[in-house]
Amino acid sequence: MSPTTDVPVAHPHHRHGWWWKTLLVGFLLWVVTIVVTITTLNTNLIPTIILLGSFLVPFTVVLFVIERVTGSVSTMQLIVAFFVGGILGVLGASLLEANLQQDALVYIVVGFVEEFVKGVLLLFVGWRVRPKTARQGALLGATVGAGFAAFESAGYAFNAAITARGIDLASLLQTEVVRAVLSPVGHVLWTSILGAVLFGAARGRDRFRWSWAPVVAYVGVALLHGLWDSNSTISTLLAFVVTGTPFSAARNGDVPASIAGVATTLYVIGLAIVSAVGVVVLVTVLRRHRRLDRDAALAGWPAPASASASASPAGGGWDGTPPPHVLR
Fold it and tell me: Which tens digit of pLDDT belongs to each residue from 217-261?
């Protein structure tokens, strides 16, 4: 029997840039579908617009991951993680959020619920992944988060399209554009952070290891998620304060036109701040684990698989796959 039997090896994924090619072609198809729908007034095309607009960006995230993931993760596993993880994620979140009271803390609670569901799915998907490294966890987390974002966006797009006056195409398109632009720094980013910390705690081993780091990461991403969702309310309240407008000026919950522009500006700034914090956290986690792996290799300690791969000519550097002897 060969010494490398049953040892995960690199998949022949090459960076052909399929993710951005798919994004470009999909965007053109989305635009063409919109034009044909407006021209023909064919409402049968509305589901096509919803599916294309909701799944295009999240699915390109999966293609991005496929071109970069290594170890024992197969393309089929990633596709299953995207679709099954996304469906189970929105179903689980819906069940857990069904009886939530609409109060000031509802967005924070939603953040904890949705990140918990995605974290459980990430554990399930990554249970047999080898080696378990921070980078692998970030990529798998991005896949699970992308699936959740795609199905959730489809639901929001559908609700935006259906009104008492019929189909509101303008509202549908606005919802899809906003959610498509923000999805990489929303669900994808939060679950990437959680995955990086969770897998990074395993330090290249085959099994997950208990530590407080994933718990802290879960609380952190849940709070960021909650801040992201509540940003509209926070920005509106700040607009009243900044402009000196009394809260009594609001009628039936509508923001006065005089402060609408300020509220929108503060909303964009708030999203940018939360996104920037998330990106910094993710980059910091990945760099920290890369440094730990490198230091362990230099000190001659038993290094995780990722460190051995980066130190080996056959490992392909940080993006490479550990040689077979590392994974025995």
Answer: 999 999 999 999 888 888 888 888 888 877 666 666 667 777 878
- Burial (Cβ within 10 Å: 0-12, 13-18, ≥19) of residue 158: middle
Residue 133, burial from CB neighbour count under 10 angstroms (0-12, 13-18, 19+):
buried
Single-letter amino acid code for the residue at 6: D
Measured CA distances, 210 to 213, 214, 217 (Å): 9, 8, 13
Distance, in Å, from the CA atom of 167 to the CA atom of 157, rounded to the nearest integer, reads: 11
Amino acid (one-letter) located at 267: Y
Q: Distance between CA atoms of 72 and 251, rounded to whole angstroms? A: 57
Q: Is the pLDDT of residue 38 over 80?
A: yes
Residues 6+ apart with CB under 8 A from 88: 117, 121
pTM of the model: 0.81
Pairing label, strands 166-167, 162-163: antiparallel
- Please name the amino acid found at residue 20: W
Cis before 131 (ω within 30): yes
Q: Which helix (H) or strand (E) holds 166?
A: strand 166-167
Q: How far apart, in Å, are the Cα atoms of 267 and each of 58, 112, 260?
A: 23, 22, 10
Whether the pLDDT of residue 91 is over 70: the answer is yes
DSSP 321: -
